[in-house]
Amino acid sequence: MRTIITILLLALSQTIFSQKPDYELYKTGGSLRNGRIVLYKDSTWCLEHGGESSSYFSFGKWTQKQNTLTCTPVNSTTFNPISKIDTFATNDSLLTVSIFDKKGNNITWQVTVIQHLKNNHRINMPLDSANTKRTCIKETNSTIVLGSLQKMLKLKTQINTGNATLIKIYLNTPENWLFGPGSKWDFDSHTFKLIKDKNRLTSTDPYDFGWDTDRPTVFIKQKNN
């Protein structure tokens, strides 16, 4: 019996550790304008770059021919980031909002949430110390807006709170999307090509990103786990 249990535990551990992430992460380095790009197995990508005070984001689809990747951005205004919304009515006087990505990871810290009142008053919902929820006093006949996504994607969706005091919002975004509360949509988003060679991606045109026009941009593969 003990032998069977040991075998099962070994098989389970091998399964857990053999699971690979659904994406590859690459980073530049040694520059004030660091960049990061994620390639997902479903042939989508996202890119983030910028300095400490600002961050620019874009995403889209990639295709591969031999060792060349062609990355085409989407029209951000046609992308619906919200997959579903679950609301719950409790006896709490507070309104609590939590946000999750497609895999169920809590990414509340990445998205600002604003409660809109009928008198055009707005309340920025603060993040708790665990970075898993945003909470403020629940106001009557209010709506909430995902502020950072509204700014970045020009999202116009307003969510009626109704009788709900707990709202869980699930986004149609993959794991490790590289955006933050202050990210902006990349104003120079365009199709670009990358040469994939072992553990690096190299831009085919030095002007693709505008960070260093004297030489191609090189992204180095990072360990995900």
CATH topology grouping of the largest domain: Lipocalin
Integer count of domains: 2
Per CATH, the class of the largest domain reads Mainly Beta
Largest sheet: 8 strands, antiparallel, barrel
Mean pLDDT: 84
Measure the end-to-end span: 34 Å
- Portion of residues within helices: 10-25%
* General form: elongated
**Computed CA radius of gyration, to the nearest angstrom:** 21 Å
Order of helices and strands: HEEEEEEEEEEEHEEEEEE
Enumerate how many helices there are, as a single number: 2
Spatial ordering of strands, largest sheet: 1-2-3-4-5-15-16-17
CATH architecture of the largest domain: Beta Barrel
Structural class assignment: mainly beta
| Beta content | 35-45%
Unreliable spans are: 4-18
Q: What's the β-strand tally? A: 17
